Amino acid sequence: MDQTDYKFKQKHLLGLADYSAEDIHYVLEQAKTFREVLDRPVPKVPTLRDKTIVNLFYENSTRTRLSFELAQKRMGADVVNFSAGTSSAKKGESLKDTIRNISSMKIDMVVSRHESPGVPHFLTRCVDAAIINAGDGAHEHPTQALLDMFTMKQIHSDLKGKKVAIIGDISHSRVVRSNIVGLKKLGAEVVVCGPKSLMPVFVETLGASISYNIDETLAWCDIAMALRIQMERITGGTDLFPSLREYHETFGIKMSHLEKYPDFMVMHPGPINRGVEMESLVADSDRAVILNQVTNGVAVRMAILYLLSGGSRMS
Ligand code: NCD
Question: How far is the CA of 69 from the centre of ligand 1 (A)?
Answer without folding.
Answer: 16
